[in-house]
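Work package 3, deliverable 3.1, input record:
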Amino acid sequence: MSTESRAQPHIVIVGGGFAGLYAAKSLGRAPVQVTLVDRRNFHLFQPLLYQVATGSLASGDIASSLRAVLGRYKNVRVLLGDMVDLKPNERKLVLSDGELIYDTLVVATGVQPHYFGHDAWSQSATGLKTIEDAAEIRRRILLAFERAEREPDLEQRRAWMTFVIVGAGSAGVELAGALGELAHETLRHEFRRIDPAEARILLLEAVEHILPTFPVSLSVRAEAALTRLGVTVRTRTRVTDLTEHSITVSCNDREEQIPARTILWTAGVRASPIAQVIAHRTGAGLDRLGRVVVGPDLTVPGYPNLFVLGDLASFAPQHAVPLPALAPVAIQQGHYVGRLIRERLAGKTLPPFAYRDKGNLAVIGRNAAVARLGRFEFGGFVAWLLWAFVHIAYLIEFDHKVLVMLRWIWSYFTLRRGARLITVSRAD
Amino acid sequence: MSTESRAQPHIVIVGGGFAGLYAAKSLGRAPVQVTLVDRRNFHLFQPLLYQVATGSLASGDIASSLRAVLGRYKNVRVLLGDMVDLKPNERKLVLSDGELIYDTLVVATGVQPHYFGHDAWSQSATGLKTIEDAAEIRRRILLAFERAEREPDLEQRRAWMTFVIVGAGSAGVELAGALGELAHETLRHEFRRIDPAEARILLLEAVEHILPTFPVSLSVRAEAALTRLGVTVRTRTRVTDLTEHSITVSCNDREEQIPARTILWTAGVRASPIAQVIAHRTGAGLDRLGRVVVGPDLTVPGYPNLFVLGDLASFAPQHAVPLPALAPVAIQQGHYVGRLIRERLAGKTLPPFAYRDKGNLAVIGRNAAVARLGRFEFGGFVAWLLWAFVHIAYLIEFDHKVLVMLRWIWSYFTLRRGARLITVSRAD
């Protein structure tokens, strides 16, 4: 680094998700040197990951080069690196292949799928958090139809044609809806022995209603929309076991084993292992999902120059439950921390972080969505339009991904899915 | 299979590349049952693979689901399968997991990179034939710049910034041009320690001129265009050794070792191993690239119901050298075989296959190309427009990939590359 850059405070941000990226953008052109460290060279637009998993979008459509997004800020540099440890008293970040000295550290390494003590299930039930997960789910779904087409045995064929999605939060609901459309519309005329429309798509949820964070009236609407797409919704149903060939569920104390070759896991997330590193080095608390409990200004208690934000943080407004792991929370926290760091340089401070809840959206297939906007609730095509508008606006603001919008318009009218590749890893 | 389908002749096609796919299309709606067998579920538009390797296009842009492309032909079914053997006297095709009885067999399994006896080189010098190859090359190129940015040692940094492309046929020239643009334009402002424009891009060719199948005047023009993009062209240069860290070349009997961390291999191809199976089972001859020598009607001598076509076939017009491994050759052969099979059903036959050579095109970056159209030769922007038109027309005819065209127009004017992902295999 040049001597000139040493003169300014060095802000190190770990993680290029929504929280880290918006913090970096907020510090662009401020009188600081920013280093954004990520294991990957791209920001992933996670809310649309399910569209890659079901072949509507290509990986490149929802991934933006971090260097390209941040290239215009001359005071921000991007490093490909892997955080492994932290020495807060020496203000040192330890990477797998070196160290960085910081004045302020912002950690936002996010979450990973949570199998609630059954880590072995991850082998059979793929989670949906990375671009590789999405390619793997796409591979498994498309391969299942291919296998079914070649399978002479009726029972075996039925197992290949059974898709189980565990967990009916937004990710599970959106994945189930897209899978319903894929089977019933896109693939309809493409097979000779099987009828893809006979695919059995099960969406399992442990609690009373799907989309538990939405008002009940919207959960009911979403359930109806999923049923129209051929998805069978089963609530109050828990997974007790799963293998490569079947899943065992329990509902009202009755167990049932369902033969199924494709099981997808959207049941929950837990903090990235970095949370434990931070807890170990600073004595910070972790909540039940392993997230770092932060103070009102998103710092780790006792460490005013160590911020934790986004999905990795457990931030609870006064007398309230911690904020959910949502993109808008992460974006607002990134903005807040960037602004707080700038204010501090001017000798000022900011009031505690407060989340402005603008609403909640989930989409079910091509025409339906459910939306809560403040006190307003609505569903159907209007909600879908709103969903499309919000997501497109973000993608365009972000990386000028105008073509994603055109691709959507195209596939909306043609029902085509242009990215239906079964790819393999080179290691195969 | 139903009894109805048994009544009609069963045409089995192995390989969904240009040759196999066009044969299948040509037999769509003919009074035959067609089964297209491929290991992958998609057709790959190989002429644009280098654009995926350099981040301009996403994988999904140049891959089309075989089921989607052939779905409209009710008499064509697609099977995911892997040919391992052949019993021509029983008219039996052996797959890794089953057998198929055919009346006529069409084999078009294409080629793979050829390391001329140095198979170990494939570990360090990635070839460019599959979609996974392209993702791997993209990963290696982008990672090299990332490593260079973090490398304090000047000599090491220089090795990370040195890119060697072995073989200056169309693929090598196009890859070198795109890499030149990536380094000099797209990445220009995105790094802080290194200047991507200082990347050293070497294009090596063993013979006198690059693009050996083009007229010399066009080779010279292409070389000038590459030089303008910052590519160093070295002809009459042979590779004598290569490792992960360097490549050793020989030119005019002088050896030189060049430290380079990224070596890409476009020096040659040889037939898929299926050629040896066919030779073993039928006594057919193989040419020096391992391709099956076929008769004037593209059948294996002595086996009138066994066709070999596309890159896998060695077809020599009377008193001439075998046709090159080009997409137009494969497409015309696919059409020919489809038509011949239809004519035979009507008790007729066709004159021998004749290749109509419409010309040859290679593109160098955003504005330049060289083209030979019959007796006409030209270069520059007009050739580039022709190249873009030809490729876009194919992609659209093929799979309505209108958006690829829009993506091109977009990146032509903005110099953006939207698909710059470093992805890893799940096995990592």
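DSSP finds twelve helices and 26 strands in chain A.
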